[in-house]
Amino acid sequence: MGICRDSRHKRRETGGRRQSIHKKRKFEMGRQPAMTKIGPKKVQVIRGRGGNSKFRAQRLETGNFSWGTEVCTRKVRILDVNYNASNNELVRTKTLVKGAIILIDAHPFKAWYESHYGRSIGLKKGLKSEIPDKKVSDRVTRKISLRQKAPKIDPALDDQFVGGRLYAKITSRPGQSGRCDGYVLEGKELEFYKRQMAKK
């Protein structure tokens, strides 16, 4: 029981030493951090207090990520860790933790968008649409033409589709749940994190 979550060993606010009135307790126990890395999936099951289980992910390579404005969720590959507000060391070692900004594969989202709206995204300048003409029913044609009236996606997001990578934020806790899930960054939040990454 090396790691302890109690506060008895800490000094008082005034700086005085505090006398510990009892030894360490099992319920005050802490554990080593998971330090989840990018790689073939490896999850360890840990028994917790009350017989409950924790799923300690040691390596993960995929996760479920949501594209909020389009209400679309896909299982995608995790490519890299780009920013972490709490610690630069976690970026250098490519550690997956909650709140980290990562790069994910954009192709599952691109394929969905092109089939749903019938128009291309992430095209390089000067290139025309690559979507082949499929034979579909009149009803599907009407549906797609109605969807095409919707405004096009944010240019900042479209630029990322050109490179085939999207910035995303992790919202799950890989060391507790054994999963790496999150959402695609858009709008003001994307601008903010781009500025933060430019500073580093």
Please outline what is shown here.
With 200 residues, the protein is of the alpha+beta class. It has 6 helices and 8 strands.
How would you characterize the overall build of this protein?
It is elongated, with a radius of gyration of 23 Å. The mean pLDDT is 89. The protein has helices at residues 89-92, 107-117, 138-147, 155-163, 174-177, 187-199, and strands at 37-38, 42-47, 53-60, 62-67, 72-83, 101-105, 165-170, 182-184. The chain is built from six helices and eight strands, in the order βββββαβαααβαβα. A hairpin with a 5-residue loop joins strand 2 and strand 3 (53-60). The protein has 200 residues and is α+β, with helices and mostly antiparallel strands. It has a five-stranded mixed beta barrel with strand order 4-5-6-7-8. The chain has a three-stranded mixed sheet with strand order 1-3-2.
Tell me the strand order in the biggest sheet: 4-5-6-7-8
How many strand elements?
8
Number of helices: 6
- Give the structural class: alpha+beta
> Would you list the SSEs in sequence order as H and E?
EEEEEHEHHHEHEH
Helix content: 25-40%
**Overall body shape:** elongated
User: Cα-atom Rg, whole angstroms?
Assistant: 23 Å
List the uncertain runs. Answer: none
Strand coverage percent: 15-25%
Average of pLDDT: 89
Cα distance spanning the termini: 38 Å
Largest sheet: 5 strands, mixed, barrel
Features:
200 residues, alpha+beta, five-stranded mixed β-barrel, three-stranded mixed beta sheet, 6 helices, 8 strands, elongated
